[in-house]
Amino acid sequence: MAPQGPRDPLEFGGPMGAASLMALLPATMLHLLLVARSGPARLLGPPPYLPGLGELWSPGALLLWLTWLGLQAALYLLPARKVVEGQELKDKSRLQYPINGFQALVLTALLVGLGLLAGLPLGALSDMLLPFAFASTLTTFIFSLLLFLKAQVAPASALAPGGNSGNLIYDFFLGRELNPRISSLDFKYFCELRPGLMGWVLINLAMLVQEAELRGSPSLAMWLVNGFQLLYVGDALWHEEAILTTMDITHDGFGFMLVFGDLAWVPFTYSLQAQFLLHHPQPLGLPMASTICLINAVGYYIFRGANSQKNTFRKNPSDPRVAGLETIPTATGRQLLVSGWWGMVRHPNYLGDLIMALAWSLPCGTAHLLPYFYLLYFTSLLVHREARDERLCRQKYGLAWQEYCRRVPYRIVPYIY
Ligand code: NDP
Question: What is the pLDDT of residue 5?
């Protein structure tokens, strides 16, 4: 693969944008953790206080964090129910990936369940989130550096389309190598769905356990947040194979952006609603809870329907479940769906995801903005991601993509955006 040319557009604001994001993202994460447990829980404004190094740094937290990563790596290496091939690479080869993420989730749940029966003080995690987040941030910087160094000796065909501009900061942020791996351990595939996503639901569970210890039983709001997000994580791991066709795997290098996102940002900020509820209990009646469940179900229905329809179509366009759908041919030989979910808007899966994000925030009431952080951040992430994908699809499919945009004019929300 040719290195990125000087005229190729740099994303994320180039080196300055990358440097700012590398400072801003960890700072924002720590800010959110502090605010979630502060009395006023004000999203905007200064942090309640500035923690000293003594409060952030804990060798015990680092050790536990590394143990968690080690446990997940060991579960990854267990025999898988099936091994699948990824998309074709530039050199025409295909990598193999184990499909055992759901199995890892079940085994992790068993281990945690046994631990709880044996008296594991899981609720105590709520007081250790800051040192855990700090330890995970440190490890993501070190891990990204090791990946960057590994890419120096990788063959040109293993490099990602972006992340090879020649600018150190930008390339460190975006990631140079597309699929760095050692033997059968594919670092990106491993990090995308396992330690972070399972860490997220484990933190949620710790908040639930702690709430039960403090108040006698978990609140309905806490149950809903735990249930919805467990469904989301379980679904992602059940459909693990689908990650192989996403932009993260097929296009983006594995650098600080994904490493930090997967290992630190996801577990510590996506669990914000549960953290908030532990410190700010919210009353929730059954009628409102039922409405929120309905909103989550609608979001999930759209999200799953759209993702499954595209994955089925990409795997086998003659599959009876998608064979009747209208398509547009493209010069690459691939087709674009233009009816069904993908005829409604150009990213129906994003729409479903955003509706679910709303349902995860609503149990926290409307008095605070903090639990809506995920919805706000996720909206901007998906709007930006949609624009990136749009640019890539325009390059890939040319006139056929223009025709698709003409026939399906809305991007994410029908008649609005
Ligand atoms: P998508 O699954 O939306 O994939 C986009 C690709 O789909 C395009 O590049 C194109 O690739 C193909 N495509 C687009 N339109 C059509 C069409 N009409 N017919 C057939 N194929 C089409 O991308 P993402 O990786 O962004 O998202 C995957 C899921 O992950 C989404 O549900 C998203 O919401 C979720 N997500 C969640 C995040 C989180 O933090 N919770 C973060 C990011 C994503 P090609 O033609 O090459 O197949």
Answer: 47
Alpha-carbon span 205 to 271, nearest angstrom: 10
| CB 416, CB 350: distance < 8 Å | no
341 within ligand 1 shell (Cβ under 6 A):
no
Scan for tokens 């460190």, then name that residue: 172
Q: How confident is the model at residue 8 (pLDDT cuts 50, 70, 90)?
A: low
Q: Which two tokens stand for residue 349?
A: 């899966």
pLDDT tens digit sequence for 170-194 = 999 999 999 999 998 999 999 999 9
pLDDT at 121 over 80: yes
Determine which residue's CA is closest to atom 20 belonging to ligand 1.
336
Our answer on whether the CB atom of 385 is closer than 6 Å to any ligand 1 atom is: yes
pLDDT in the model for residue 88? 82
Q: Count other C-beta atoms under 10 Å from residue 6's C-beta.
A: 8
Percent of the chain with pLDDT over 90: 80
Alpha-carbon torsion (267, 381, 28, 37), positive or negative: negative
Which residue has the least CA distance to atom 4 on ligand 1?
246
Q: From the CB of 265, is ligand 1 less than 6 Å away?
A: no
∠ Cα 55 33 378 (to 5°): 150
User: Considering only CA atoms, which residue is closest to atom 1 of ligand 1?
Assistant: 246
Does the Cβ of 387 fall within 6 Å of ligand 1? no
Q: How far apart are CA 362 and CA 348, in angstroms?
A: 22
> Phi/psi of residue 42, each to 5°?
-85, 120
User: From the CA of 242, how far away is ligand 1's center (Å)?
Assistant: 10
Which residues does 119 contact at the CB level (< 8 Å), separation at least 6?
Answer: none
Place of tokens 């631990």: 115
Q: Which of these, 215, 231, 374, 216, lies nearest to 280 by C-alpha position? A: 215
Dist CA 93 CA 86 (whole Å): 9
Q: What is the pTM of this model?
A: 0.92
pLDDT in tens, 258-316: 999 999 999 999 999 999 999 999 999 999 999 999 999 999 999 999 999 998 998 88
In the numeric block, which tokens belong to residue 78? 């267990």
Q: Residue 106 region, left (φ>0) first, then alpha (ψ -120 to 50), else beta? A: alpha
CA gyration radius, the chain: 22
